[in-house]
Amino acid sequence: MTMKTTTFNRKPLAAAVIGSVLGLSPMAYSATVDSVNTDNLSVPPVDGKTLVYTDTDGTASFGWIDPVNDSGVIGLGISVYNEAFSVQQGAYDFDGCIMAQPDRQNIDPSFVNCLAPGDSGKRFKLKSTETNGPIDLVFNITVDGTTKLYRVIGKLSNLTDPLNTAGGDLKGFRFETGFGVGNDFVPSTAADGLTFPRTNDDASKLSIGSLGKYPGGLFGGSKVEGLPFFSTSIAAFSESNATDLDADMIETDGTVPAPYAALFGNWRNLQKAPTGWFIDHDGNPANDSILLAWNDGTASVPDWQTYQKNFDGPDVDTDGDGNPDTPVSHWDPNDTTNFDTTVAGDVTPLVDTLGESDPEDLIPDAISLTQKAASTLYDGTFKVLIDGNAVQIAQFADWANTPPTVVDSSNGNAL
User: For 224-239, what is each residue's pLDDT tens digit?
Assistant: First the structure.
């Protein structure tokens, strides 16, 4: 058995958006969604990709789905689970979900896939390879006259070619319900029973969380991804007024979220995404490494920058009673007096004050971020908070001298 352990690893930052529904509201049908239709998919995968073809003949493809789940099992990469569940304290009852293939029932028959916890690989990973190129995801249904609500959970990555005629950078995305594939696609109508439902108060289309957003570990924080790197504000897309009342279409408003745009402009494709230095803190290649710095310059003239987390906010609420009870300094890995490993392992009380959990900014932020040169911050004594521990980071100048290694976990020897 082997596993990859990386002390410091340099790679591109993900050019991806995640949402409770692939940036999309749940869908309601007067039918039961039985399974994913594979007529326009490559089965088995081709070169490690479930290609989504523009027709059932496999003529061309504008995108693909990652077929490998977090357990390393190869499938389609997307599945339908008819499992009833509720969210938001019972405000919305779902009949199932469309998501990746965690197949948690193989771990424990009592596990429900649609309620899989965070960091369990529940988002299907869709990669767009053509600007303005439609990607048709098709499902088999049984028309039974019953209205059912499905939650769609996915992640969309911009892998478009920067040299194509429309350019590689994106400004948003559109989702449309209908029937058929490619040139045979017929948009859904109000009479066919297929729709994006609205919230109970009819304020907007129903989305559990943001319509679509850049990862919380980069912007706004997240209960799963922890404290943010770039900004304490969430970088979320908004629906266009033009489709707000259209029950069969969702299109973003053409504006890239401000926290992201201020740093990178439009939604960059993978080839143009900045390079980052990461630390692989647990030797597990299946989860995300910890971002330490990014190159704000070029490959030939690098400008490595980072953000220092300042644990300078007021006390936070740790027991959920609404009353602040714990100093933020208990999470500060560089505060040798107050840092407390018994509480620092759970950053939820801090995240609850930031953009993801406090979008209306009703609670003072527990932390602030200060941009600095990586060589200035990482002087060999600075520590970062990782899984509740104060981890001392090597001097920036030494990072390139600690390349990735592959270790045999049975004996600890490097391969």
Answer: 889 999 999 999 999 9
